[in-house]
Amino acid sequence: MLKPTRRCEGPLSRRRFLQIGGLALGGLGTGIVPWKLHADGGAASETSVILIWLPGGPSHLETYDLKPDAPAEYRGEFRPIRTRVSGLDVCEHLPRHAQVADRFALIRSIAHTFSDHGGGHKRFLTGRDPLSPVGFVNDHPMVGSMVARLRPQRPGRIAHYIAGTDAGREGIDVFSFGSAYLGPTTHPFMVAGDPAAPNFEVRNLRPNGPIEAQLPHRLELLQRLDTVAHRQAADRGGEPMDVYRRQALGLLSSDATRRAFDLSQEPLRLREKYGMHRYGQRCLLARRLVEHGATFVTMVLENPSPPGGSFPADVTYNWDSHAVNCHIFTDCKYRFPYYDRAIAALVEDLYDRGLDRQTLLIVTGEFGRTPRLTYSDGRPGRDHWPQAMSVLVAGGGIRTGQVIGATNSRGEYPSERPLTPNDLWATMFRHLGIDYAHTSFLDHSGRPMPVLPYGNPIDELF
């Protein structure tokens, strides 16, 4: 048995972010313009995406791709259960998934080659092999930033690109959410904290009356002071920073924005259906935000504990289920009820509210886990494994109630319909009406960089 001795730090720690976060400012004044842009108009402009991000890497063998006939050192403790769809089985600890399986699809054959958290985040979220297999600072923009550039925020609407995280995890480079050569105007509007907590509020969204009244005048003064800098940015082909400031001002002064983030507007029964914990309330918030006009919403699900709760023994912070971090089966038994309730409620809510064609839901982490169990002091776990993973998709007008692809008998590699993260993003861009095959951006050196270097929409979904 393998016996790891070093605890895996997982996605970028808050301390490490503070040490290197300033590097992201290097692109602040870099001018970027689309090289060739073709995006469908009309109905496509109303489409949206919810990305539920599971950092650390959930185990496909404990969630959506169980192998009950594999040897014991591979299959683990859990067993699959039948769902409403014949042939689409899920873990026995995801019973609510089973009830809505006709409304989602599982992709079991996405894989890549980057096994470090940093490399895995960058590879999955940008659609490109990173220059370094470690670290979380992007060489290329995260797909959310691409969407933000290609689908600009419309006047009078809430922020079009929003991300929700635990408090202290909102740094742009914690999860490789950086925009690289697209610049800070394509960063997400970050919402940190536990939306299930009674005192939760979106910071910087509630200026008092006197400050709010002064904001336009302060912006005008800044514009006068920065005229030269703005002209220089424009000469380099970039966006003046007043674009960024006007977006921020619009958020601060918008009643629509404040209403969109107000979960108290939801019936208590529905909030409880999602679960009165950060997983559930973040998923509900995501639905509210796309309903109010957001285009790309990322919600990060790490700590599963409810307000005031603490971790039991053998449970870890996120989905990084090494034996040195946790007892994988104890961790899953604690985490899965929160996750099961939240995801199933979100899937059902999207369809019940008629958002199933407008909004595409994607649920994934950066990779799967090793098919063979590892141990530390007799405690079981699984290590990083990008060679196989499972992804849940729903909404977006896709064909649901199906499984796409398969892994071999031990969950090691795709055995049917091998796919990459790029195929998933090509599917997403198609849903958004973005012609990714004929759209590029200029990088820092002025070279045209295509949205995706390769990848095709997953035909079975359409």
Can you tell me about this structure?
By secondary structure, the chain is an alpha/beta fold. The protein has a single domain (about 15-20, about 35-200, about 280-460), classed as Alkaline Phosphatase, subunit A, CATH 3.40.720.10. It has 13 helices and 19 strands. The protein has helices at about 15-20, 70-75, 95-100, 115-125, 145-150, 210-225, 225-235, 240-250, 255-260, 270-275, 280-290, 330-350, 420-430, and strands at about 35, 50-55, 80, 90, 105-110, 160-165, 190, 295-300, 360-365, 370, 375, 380, 385, 390-395, 400-405, 405, 415, 440, 450. The strands form six sheets. The chain has an eight-stranded mixed beta sheet with strand order 7-6-8-2-9-14-5-15, with helices on both faces. Strand 16 (about 405) and strand 17 (about 415) form a beta hairpin.
Task: Put the structure in a nutshell.
With 462 residues, the protein is an alpha/beta fold. The protein contains 13 helices and 19 strands.
Per CATH, the architecture is 3-Layer(aba) Sandwich
Please give the domain count: 1
Strand portion: 15-25%
Q: What does the average pLDDT come to?
A: 86
Number of helices: 13
Q: What's the alpha carbon Rg, rounded to whole Å?
A: 22 Å
Can you give the helix content as a percent range?
25-40%
Globally, the shape reads: globular
Q: Measure the end-to-end span.
A: 44 Å
